[in-house]
Design brief:
The complex is a heterodimer of chains A (about 120) and B (about 110).
Chain A (H helix, E strand, L loop, with lengths): L4 E3 L2 E4 L5 E6 L6 E7 L6 E7 L2 E4 L8 E4 L6 E5 L8 E8 L10 E2 L3 E5 L1
Parallel strand pairs in A: 2-11
Antiparallel strand pairs in A: 1-3, 3-8, 4-5, 4-9, 5-6, 7-8, 9-10, 9-11
Chain B lengths: L2 E3 L4 E5 L4 E3 L2 E3 L5 E8 L6 E7 L7 E2 L2 E6 L4 E6 L8 E9 L6 E2 L3 E6 L1
Parallel strand pairs in B: 2-12
Antiparallel strand pairs in B: 1-4, 3-9, 5-6, 5-10, 7-8, 8-9, 10-11, 10-12
Classes of the chains: A mainly beta (about 120), B mainly beta (about 110).
Chain lengths: ~120, ~110
C-alpha cells in the first residue's frame, strides 16, 4: 500500500496522559498536514510541514499540542496532559508541492483518540 | 477568517437519481480553490472534484459536477445517476494562497436508497 498511513488507528488514554501519533506520508511527498476532526464536524487544520520545516503552527489548538517531522519523512503529533475535549479523529495528509498554487492532499485513515 | 457552510446535514436520494449538495463560503481573497471531498464510513477521505476560482467553467468529473457561482460565493455539487457506493459524508473545502491548510464545512451525510 503506497498511501498515507497512520499509527495507531485507535488510542484510548486516561486524562492527563501524553499521547503521540505517527504519520507516514506517500514516499515522494514533501508536504505533510495534520487535521483534527471531532464528531459531527469537518476536519480542522492544525499544522503543516514542507520537508522538515514547520511552515504553519499558529493553528495548533494549545501549547499542549506539538508536531515534528525531523527528517522530512514521517511526522509525529504529540498531545501532552490530555483532556477529554481532545477526544477526536486526528487526520494526516500529504502532498507533492512543486511550486505554484495547487497540490492535492491525500488523506490517511486517521487515529481515533478517546480520552477517559 | 474564511468560513465554509454546508446547510444540509443529511440528504437522501433514490438510486439512479440526481442529487445536489449545497455549499457557501466566505472569503475576501480573489485566488482560491474549492473542493468536494468524500468520506465513506470508516474509510479515508478522498477528493471528488476541485474548482479553481479563476476558471469560469464549472468542473466535471464523470457523474460529478459543480455549479460555481463566484459572486454569490456558492459551490454546489451535483451527483448524477446516484449509486449505492456514493453513500458517504461529503465535505466542501476551501483553500487560498495564504496557507496550505484546507478549511472544511461540517459535511452532508448522503444516503442512497435502493
Amino acid at each position: 500500500d503506497t498511501g498515507v498511513s497512520q499509527d495507531p488507528r485507535h488510542k484510548i488514554t486516561k486524562r492527563g496522559q501524553n499521547v503521540t501519533f505517527r504519520c507516514d506520508p506517500i514516499s515522494e511527498h514533501n508536504r505533510l498536514y495534520w487535521y483534527r476532526q471531532t464528531l459531527g464536524q469537518g476536519p480542522e487544520f492544525l499544522t503543516y510541514f514542507q520537508n522538515e520545516a514547520q511552515l504553519e503552527k499558529s493553528r495548533l489548538l494549545s501549547d499542549r499540542f506539538s508536531a515534528e517531522r525531523p527528517k522530512g519523512s514521517f511526522s509525529t503529533l504529540e498531545i501532552q496532559r490530555t483532556e477529554q475535549g481532545d477526544s477526536a479523529m486526528y487526520l494526516c495528509a500529504s502532498s507533492l508541492w512543486a511550486g505554484g498554487f495547487y497540490n492535492e492532499q491525500f488523506f490517511g485513515p486517521g487515529t481515533r483518540l478517546t480520552v477517559l | 477568517a474564511q468560513t465554509v457552510t454546508q446547510s444540509q446535514p443529511e440528504m437522501s436520494v433514490q438510486e439512479a437519481e440526481t442529487v445536489t449538495l449545497s455549499c457557501t463560503y466566505d472569503t475576501s481573497e480573489s485566488d482560491y480553490y474549492l473542493f468536494w471531498y468524500k468520506q465513506p464510513p470508516s474509510r479515508q477521505m478522498i477528493l471528488v472534484i476541485r474548482q479553481e476560482a479563476y476558471k469560469q467553467q464549472n468542473a466535471t468529473e464523470n457523474r460529478f459536477s459543480v455549479n460555481f457561482q463566484k459572486a454569490a460565493k456558492s459551490f454546489s455539487l451535483k451527483i448524477s445517476d446516484s449509486q449505492l457506493g456514493d453513500a458517504a459524508m461529503y465535505f466542501c473545502a476551501y483553500r487560498d494562497g495564504r496557507a496550505d491548510g484546507l478549511t472544511f464545512g461540517k459535511g452532508t451525510h448522503l444516503i442512497i436508497q435502493p
